[in-house]
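Notes from the 1:1 (GR / supervisor)

We went over the backlog. Supervisor wanted to see one worked example end to end before approving the batch request, so GR pasted a single chain during the call. The sequence is below; no edits were made to it. Supervisor asked that the structure be written out right there so they could see what the output format looks like.
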Amino acid sequence: MSENTDQDKMADEWNKALAQQAAAEGEVSKAKLENLDAKNEGPGMEQANMDVILEIPVTLSMEVGRTNISIRNLLHLNQGSVVELDRIAGEPLDILVNGTLIAHGEVVIVNEKYGIRLTDVISASERIRKLK
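Structure output shown during the call:
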């Protein structure tokens, strides 16, 4: 019986020691995070953070229109086939950034290349509303 009591006491002591060690490591980690936060503050850090965001590439695409067709009809398409889209001729194109509508525009030619002139830009609040 005395042997079990000694083992129980030793187990309790180990548990207490491990708990103290974990608490001490948690305090050190918290102090390191607070120190990092303090280093990341200052007048130049906001600009540095913004510079990082401004360098992220995004995909800008223009959508002329859409349609739904069956796989049977898709397999019958060949050179010269015409596919009717859901847009009326002359209607503004959708301008998408990473698949999110941000504006409407019209096609223009600039230096023998296609371009797009923005005719209507969706407000930031409207874009956020559409995401929800």
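Supervisor's comment: The chain has two domains: 2-53, 58-131.
Batch request approved.
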